[in-house]
Design goal:
The complex is a heterodimer. Chain A is of the alpha+beta class. Chain A contains 26 helices and 28 strands. Helix content of chain A is 36%, strand content 23%. Chain B has a single domain, classed as Rossmann fold (3-Layer(aba) Sandwich). Classes of the chains: A alpha+beta, B alpha/beta. At the A-B interface, helix 8 and helix 10 of A face helix 1 and strand 6 of B.
Chain lengths: 735, 234
């Protein structure tokens, strides 16, 4: 054999995989060819362990113009010649090593995925997970990640309209940074990631290629790692200014209609971009690395092909359009070089100064070996799930004290400190800003608006990965329905540990099934996604964390609803149930149970039929203009949902319900499929008749007041007092 | 009248300003590429927000060398109306068209939030639709909006009534607690001595439509329209 064990290990190739590629190739590869295989056969590019599972996602749906998997993202028709694309993607491993650049380039990467399809990026969202915030290292990671997203995203002029942040022990050493981007396009301007016909020229646009990020896909994203190792050179460095120029110049070129194919350079850089384009077009290519502009000297061909330098795009242009396309890039003063051409011979052919240095059939490169493993559920988790919560004692502390503990929990407190660091208004479309359930952006020139939300609760997924994934989809969609919009499609980011461990593979398998089944229930197809595995440090895996990004369509932007109470004397009702008395089993996986009793136990549940009726009813009520607020109950249960609506509206609340002995489960239990609404008393009859029509149960909670916040005999305060606690927690933790 | 919106590489509120002028105010407007130098057809020029040239080195420091800036200088010397918003304000300061500089926010963080602005001079092209001591709501979105100027110049600004907007409370109290970025005297927007060039950090183009949560931006753009319909030139 030509290569030693260490060389294969550096490329994350196993001996089995090496033997396989030699067999397919019919000869031993040279070093450059080996590098191509190392990257393209990695988990990150080749989805070795996840691909067989991802086939469960329904890929065809009449509202999809392009189905998931064919391109960077599926394309959803929203009528009037408009379409949307969106995708969520992880940048977990780089962010663990260098939080600022890791998060920044995560934003850059997902934005390129979107405009590579010819879509104008109109919104960013994210989903972040860290270890406990009181730990110095986690504060450093948190601050670095938020600054990275802020600096990169703000520079692009794309509003960052929402997201979620959780803190939990399981993310110590493995923070999660998932970034999502939504784009809008005219259907006829959709660009495919395809090579176009043979004879087309390959035009590389953007940054000069450097040594940054080599082996990012094969080494960093496809392995577990220990913090001690010096891995910074595998993290890329972002240039948001260049990305902004790329967006504008590429969209101008796309609008000219002279593009046959466009692909961003992401994981595995030019290697994966050129091979994907060629594979999609059933062509091959010939690239001469000496034509690729460098930003440093002394780079080998191997490094040039595998560099993950950011802010680069690969175009396939027919020769007669070259001058016109180049004139646009010249106007924007951005580098653009013809580096090769499309060939009918289906090979990846790489030359250096005209001399052949690699020549591999495309179909072997894209045919990564897939592994289907047997999943086994961890006994400890089965035990935690099957633990009955009937014996959870009433807290020793007072109602008031417990309420304040929940309100000031790092997982519940206001995220204002974070989202005010993101420009959430640029492009002047933000109708519902971040801070509530889902955010809403209008589409100028139409009556329509898009609602978007990211969601995932890893405690539920830990206890029951199948139900946890279903709840994640339900809750992301519920957030959308609370604005009045109808969920139309979802994207997902699957953050897991090492899939080669049967316990982790089990979680991955069940999570994919949960998402798949629930997306069918909502008729909201999975249009894109990303898998981030090996989120482990020193043998400790993160909680299974499937994150769902949901997007909804609102036909008439005027009929939208926010989360904040609006007017004194409005009635406050709970939809989805006719009682607030909850069985103690509803503490399963709750914030209360972990915070107060230090337990993550129980069996989470969701009633899908009820969930669907609830969301339909919310949309109907909002479309009929009957509500002043609509907010879902999630972490912290009913008490926190009411408190959030009150604080956001700077209004009080006076309850007219009685609590029984188990006030803890009534206030903080996390039963799914519940929404708190407020409305003018004159709308009561009409609202109840709509609820009855949908057979949706409801419960009267009380009234909006001017500033008194009275939840019970023991929780009776001014709104300023609770507002202050909720708003300053995160800030105080960080300073 | 005709508006022009300058586009530098890295500018992003160009589209937002263009939309307000064209769709909310129904006025004639064109983009001006940063390499263009002929501004003769314009009555009012907007230098919009964004990160021109990435704001590398220092915000506005590279943009001031763009070919269009020589013409902008001449345009201002002729007494024509210019409004620099956010990055536009930073570029006007870097170019010496307006006094002072904009440094990093006091807490070193980017801030995007609604601010209250006390209107301190209504006898200008840009504020004639406002009332004196009125409070208007306009959002900020910047990391480098901390206005700084030496004491002598500050006295000049005050004496000449050049401070148009100061960050304040909702009832017009100008105090440290209402200062989002550490600007001297809570300054949010100033005009040059002649009164034809406005620089402001807040984004009036973001509050020109009720569905976005406010319309106070129309007071500023509307003032410019009123000025031009009252006097053909100045």
């Amino acid at each position: 054999m030509r290569f030693d064990e260490q060389t294969l290990k550096n490329l994350s190739l196993t001996q089995y995989e090496y033997d396989l590629l030699v067999e397919k190739l019919g000869r031993e590869p040279n070093y450059i060819e080996l590098g191509l295989f190392g990257s393209l056969w990695s988990e990150h590019c080749g989805y070795q362990h996840s691909k067989p599972l991802l086939k469960k996602f329904q890929s065809d749906n009449p509202k999809l113009l392009v189905s998931a998997g064919e391109e960077n993202a599926g394309v959803v028709d929203i009528g009037d010649g408009d379409a949307i694309v969106f995708k969520i993607e992880s940048h977990n491993h780089p962010s663990a090593i260098e939080p600022y650049e890791g998060a920044a380039t995560g934003v850059g990467g997902i934005v390129r995925d979107i405009f590579a399809m010819g879509a104008r990026p109109v919104a960013l969202l994210n989903s972040l997970r860290f270890g406990p915030i009181h730990v110095e290292r986690n504060k450093y990671l948190f601050d670095g990640v938020v600054s990275g997203i802020s600096n990169y995203g703000n520079c692009l002029g794309i509003p960052n309209i929402g997201g979620e942040i959780y803190f939990s022990d399981s993310y110590t050493g493995n923070p999660l940074v998932n970034a999502m981007c939504i784009g809008v396009l005219k259907i006829e301007e959709l660009v495919k990631s395809s090579s176009g016909p043979a004879g087309n020229l390959l035009l590389l646009v953007g940054s000069g290629t450097g040594k940054d990020g080599i082996h990012g896909a094969s080494g960093l994203a496809s392995n577990t790692f220990d913090e001690e190792q010096e891995l910074r050179p595998t993290v890329q460095v972002g240039n948001p200014f260049l990305e902004k120029i790329l967006i504008e110049s590429c969209l101008e070129v796309v609008a000219s209609g002279r593009v046959d194919g466009l692909q961003d350079l992401g994981a595995a850089g030019l290697t994966s971009a050129s091979v994907e384009c060629a594979a999609n077009g059933n062509m091959g290519f010939e690239i001469d690395v000496s034509l690729i502009p460098r930003r440093e000297s002394g780079m080998e061909a191997y490094e040039v092909m595998l560099s993950e330098t950011q802010e680069r795009m690969l175009f396939s242009i027919s020769p007669e359009n070259l001058d016109y396309v180049c004139s646009i890039f010249e106007k924007w003063d951005i580098n653009h070089d013809v580096i090769g051409k499309v060939t009918s011979r289906e090979y990846a052919t790489i030359l250096e100064n005209g001399k052949l240095i690699a020549d591999v059939p495309i179909n072997i490169l894209t045919d990564a070996p897939l592994y289907t493993l047997e999943g086994v559920e961890s006994r400890d988790i089965i035990k935690a799930r099957e633990t009955s919560l009937e014996n959870i004692p009433l807290p020793q502390e007072s109602q008031m004290r417990v309420f304040f503990k929940l309100l000031s929990s790092a997982n519940i407190a206001s995220r204002e400190y974070v989202y005010t660091q993101y420009d959430h208004q640029v492009q002047t479309n933000t109708v519902i800003p971040p801070g509530g359930d889902a955010s809403l952006i209008r589409i100028k020139g139409t009556q329509k608006a898009l609602a978007a939300s990211t969601d995932g609760n890893s405690r539920f997924s830990y206890l029951d990965p199948y139900i946890g994934a279903k709840i994640a989809v339900a809750e992301a969609c519920r957030n959308i329905s609370c604005t009045g919009a109808e969920p139309i499609a979802i994207t997902n980011c699957l953050n897991f540990g090492n899939p080669q461990k049967p316990e982790v593979y089990y979680q991955l398998d069940k999570s994919v099934s949960g998402i798949s089944d629930m997306s069918l229930e909502f008729n909201a197809p999975v249009i894109s996604g990303n898998v981030s595995l090996y989120n482990e440090t020193q043998d400790s895996a993160i909680f299974p964390t499937p994150v769902i990004g949901a997007v909804g369509l609102l036909q008439n932007v005027e009929n939208h609803c926010g989360s904040a109470f609006e007017n004194q004397n409005d009635l406050v009702f709970l939809l989805g149930t006719n009682t607030i008395d909850l069985n103690l089993e509803y503490f399963a996986g709750s914030e209360f149970l972990e915070l107060i009793h230090n337990k993550i136990e129980g069996s989470p549940e969701i009633n899908i039929a009820l969930e669907i009726i609830l969301q339909k009813t919310c949309r109907e009520l909002i479309a009929s203009n009957l509500l002043n607020s609509c907010h879902d109950c999630s972490e912290g249960g009913l008490a926190i949902a009411i408190a959030e609506s009150a604080i956001l509206g700077n209004k009080g609340f006076v309850a007219n319900f009685e609590l029984n002995e188990r006030w803890d489960s009534a206030l903080f239990g996390e039963k799914q499929s519940r929404v708190v609404i407020s409305f003018h008393p004159s709308n009561l009859d009409e609202i109840l008749s709509i609820c009855n029509r949908f057979s949706l149960p409801f419960f009267e909670l009380g009234k909006v007041s001017s500033n008194r916040f009275k939840m019970s005999e023991f929780i009776d305060l001014n709104i300023e007092e609770i507002s202050n606690v909720w708003k300053t927690t995160l800030l105080n933790e960080l300073n | 009248m005709k508006f022009g919106v300058v586009v530098f590489p890295g500018t992003w509120s160009d589209v937002d300003c263009f939309h307000v002028i064209k769709d909310c105010l129904d006025q004639d407007v064109e983009y001006i590429w940063h390499k263009d130098t002929d501004l003769s057809k314009f009555d009012c020029i907007i230098l919009p927000g964004g990160f021109s040239y990435g704001d590398y080195l220092r915000c506005g420091a590279i943009a001031k060398f763009s070919p269009v800036m020589e013409s902008i200088k001449e345009f201002s010397e002729k007494g024509k109306a210019i409004i620099g918003i956010c990055n536009g304000f930073q570029i006007l300061c870097e170019s010496g068209i307006l006094p002072g500089v904009l440094i990093r926010n006091r807490d070193l963080k980017f801030r995007c939030e609604m601010t209250n602005l006390l209107v301190q001079n209504t006898d200008t092209v840009f504020t004639n639709r406002c009332d004196l001591d009125q409070v208007i709501q306009v959002p900020i979105s910047h990391g480098e909006g901390n206005y700084f100027v030496d004491n002598d110049t500050l006295n000049e600004l005050e004496k000449n009534n050049q401070i148009l907007f100061s960050y304040s409370s909702s009832i017009g109290e100008v105090s440290e607690i209402n200062n989002p970025n550490g600007s001297v005297m809570n300054i949010a927007g100033i005009v040059n001595q002649k009164g034809n060039v406005l620089g402001m950090m807040p984004h009036p183009e973001r509050v020109c439509d009720p569905i976005l949560g406010g319309t106070d931006g129309l007071k500023i753009f509307g003032s410019i329209l009123d000025h031009f319909s009252d006097s053909v030139s100045f």
